[in-house]
């Protein structure tokens, strides 16, 4: 059994990749020339969309929904997930709960919580395995493979990507296109380049000061950019992520409101609230985050009280972009519904009741997988060894055909209807049917990750008894939680 100190030391080794302030705002340069051009008579919706400040489909700004996207970054842990739910505790005009998007990095993430978040209709997206800037293909793919194997998120439902530290290049965008993602959301929009989401057929139209908008740099037909919308603080300095760190809650609310009004009373471009939930979560020994969080919660509640304001995932936003309707018709769109599957028995699909105490997640149906920086619970098989960048989905610790084996999600079952214990898809009607036709994210452009992680072979033989016991797991997971706090 490893001591807590050892665990911390091991975890600290990983810290170096987190230490750079991923919070706050990256360098943002306003103005300058924008070489982007796009001919709307040649770029035809829904496959192609020019960058534009005005709503798509000729919808008048006053008739457009005011979308608000609340996004969360990095690992998913019990307290962080609770913070996210506290922020999303408002309703959309059609009575459904607000939805959010989570850009998930793998280390310290509990996959049972990812599955639970996803099962509530929220979005799960890719934020790499180890959380590095200018990520390799392998970093992006490893995360996608783990999210499928341990959280049951099929590649076809993993639509989005955000670069850690928002540090991306043209190659990053090319790679996410090659791996079949629908969109990137790493670029920054301020005022002059405050575009609705657009496709990269004609290149990027944001962050042009880096040279990335120069003709020929990026041309990725059908791949969307969802710009991150910066807000100007009271000194006109653009703030992007964790804006609540830039002033007192009262001041931040004031200038956030001014920026929201510019969108709402203007061209109704989406408004973003970009959160690292660690900053809004209380940890023993760290400054109390209660006031910060209440400031954000009150701001969100004030937005929710206005007509035509919808809290959506970036995935939902893009469904609307591809088929825009006036706000008056949004309530009836299929992607805005909030039904839950009624399965004939309780299955491990993310909707069962989980208990979590401190950072340990338990449930009747979930497995606990105990590795040093990879402690997590899952509805699926625990890996036989700790996942790594090279081998994000090691062979199962339990062999097919032996007790406790969980059958991986197949490509032809909606994950909400998949019973991994029985190895059975409980969906029997066309309304719940699903076929994953995504471009496989296992691509030849990547180096050495296990391919076909979705269907681990029957040869998983590693003894599950090698995993540390629950006490060690508790200490280790707590170490991970502390670490998260230190990262700030
Ligand atoms: C982006 O990430 C790369 C690789 O991690 C790093 O070398 C570079 O300094 C980063 N750039 C910025 C602006 O953070
Ligand atoms: C593949 O690995 C080689 C060397 O190991 C490295 O130079 C290259 O950048 C990697 N390619 C990707 C897409 O990760
Ligand atoms: C912005 O507000 C802060 C108080 O939060 C104040 O100290 C500062 O002087 C203000 N700056 C400007 C440019 O108004
Ligand atoms: C949960 O934590 C509380 C406070 O630490 C403790 O009193 C309680 O016994 C714990 N419950 C379980 C089931 O471990
Ligand atoms: C953590 O896991 C890695 C990968 O399995 C392993 O190499 C390392 O020895 C482990 N460290 C501890 C302290 O268990
Ligand atoms: C598990 O074993 C059964 C029986 O041999 C086989 O039909 C099934 O395809 C295997 N499942 C996987 C995921 O390999
Ligand atoms: C993978 O290889 C095939 C054929 O060798 C090629 O057509 C395809 O473009 C490659 N994909 C990537 C992402 O490199
Ligand atoms: Zn991040």
Automatic annotation (TrEMBL):
Keyword Signal listed: yes
CDD domains assigned to the protein according to its UniProt record, in alphabetical order: CE4_CDA_like (cd10919)
Pfam families: Polysacc_deac_1 (PF01522)
Protein name: NodB homology domain-containing protein
Residue ranges with Low complexity bias: 445-466
Taxon lineage: Eukaryota, Fungi, Fungi incertae sedis, Mucoromycota, Mucoromycotina
Cleavable signal peptide: 1-21
Record-level GO BP terms: carbohydrate metabolic process
Location of region: Disordered: 438-466
GO molecular-function terms, A-Z: hydrolase activity, acting on carbon-nitrogen (but not peptide) bonds
Domain spans labelled NodB homology: 65-181
Protein species of origin: Umbelopsis ramanniana AG
Highest rank taxon of the organism: Eukaryota
Keyword annotations of the record: Signal
